[in-house]
Write a structure and sequence with these properties.
Strand order of the largest sheet: 1-2-3-9-8-5
Order of helices and strands: EEEHEEEEEHHEH
Radius of gyration: 13 Å
Oligomer: single chain
Strand content: 25-35%
CATH topology: OB fold (Dihydrolipoamide Acetyltransferase, E2P)
Number of strands: 9
Shape: globular
Length: 127
């Protein structure tokens, strides 16, 4: 199980796990619940540059289409092909097998993101 207190969060309902200068990014269980059953995921290409707060992908569900925002500026070094092949992983395991992209970043930039308590306050108590 992922230690949710070790993650950082965005107001767009993404989580970030930092390992050195690589940030693994996914959407929170709160976002996955709000979306409903995820049926399609479009992710940026490996090697592409992303800028914080810009749209880099799309998540479609039976209810709506949501945009995936880059939580940080950097270069995409990996995408989760398993989620592209089986989008239901986003709902089944949003903090684990449902991760979306890995981005090389300036580790100091993660400090600007929300901690778990701030994110829970933002969502009214949900994760």
């Amino acid at each position: 199980m992922t230690d949710l207190t070790a993650l950082k969060y965005t107001a767009e309902h993404e989580w970030v796990a930092l390992d050195g200068d690589v940030a693994t990014v996914g959407i929170t269980s709160y976002a996955a619940d709000k979306l409903g059953d995820v049926v399609f995921v479009e992710l940026p290409a490996v090697g592409s540059s992303v800028t914080a707060a810009t749209v880099v992908g799309e998540i479609e569900s039976t209810k709506s289409v949501g945009e995936l925002y880059a939580p940080l500026t950097g270069e995409v070094v990996a995408v989760n092909d398993a989620v592209v092949d089986d989008p239901s992983l986003v709902n089944a395991d949003p903090f684990g097998a449902g991760w979306l992209v890995k981005i090389t970043v300036d580790p100091a930039s993660v400090a600007d993101l929300l901690d778990r308590d701030a994110y829970i306050s933002l969502t009214g108590g949900a994760e």
